[in-house]
Amino acid sequence: xxxxxAQIAVLVIAIEHVYILVLEMFLWNxxxxxxxxxxxxxxxxxxxxxxxxxxxxxxxxxxxxxWGLATDNREFMLFFLVCVLVAGIYGGLTSAxxxxxxxxxPAAVALALVLAAG
Length: 118
What we know:
Blueprint: H1 2-26, H2 31-37, H3 41-46, H4 48-71, H5 74-94, H6 98-117
Helix pairs in contact: 1-4, 1-6, 4-5, 5-6
Keywords: Membrane, Transmembrane, Transmembrane helix
Pfam families: DUF1304
Protein name: DUF1304 domain-containing protein
């Protein structure tokens, strides 16, 4: 049961990062992206290429988590959850405090579940 909960948590984190990829790569300067990141149209237009690059990295995080799930590779899941956690802490401390709750906290919970599931 614990392993299933851990897998669900990892899947949720992966889906979240696919969503972030879409926001950053395709919707950054559209209404959904502007609202999600609280930016002006001018700022979003000026940073669109940077955001797309950032979105690609979020896609790599999602891909690693999904690969870990598909292959039942605990080490892959742990590695990519730690990457998400570190990115979430860094983002929360340097960009927006809400990132701690949106990205870092869920990653920490999933990491704890994967560790506990053995």
